[in-house]
Amino acid sequence: MSNLLLTKINVTNAAIKKIKSILSYKNNIGYNFRVFVTNGGCNGLKYDFTLDKNINDNDYILKQSNILILIDNNSLNYLNGGSIDYIENINKSYFFIKNIKYNNKCNCGMSFN
User: Fold this and answer.
1) Which tens digit of pLDDT belongs to each residue from 53-64?
2) pTM attached to this predicted model
3) CATH 2.60.300.12 given to domain 3-98
């Protein structure tokens, strides 16, 4: 059974706006935004993002501004107290997680341990 997330994870307005934009595409109807932690990067772990139609039994659901953000139980520990943000500039655009609990990041800032 999925759980409504009651823990503290902030989602910025920029991230919400971009997630809504992505989910509004015709091919993405019925999908939700998933945030998870996986092995990778220079420091061992990295945050990743995908679209997912499935809500798994071990998922927590963060509901903000009429969107569902899915987070599996294992990834929740790494996200709790953090912030989901989105940056778009002339060089690149990407979602990222700000979390002061994990300051040991690689030089590019995309992975942690």
Assistant:
1) 999 998 999 988
2) 0.82
3) yes
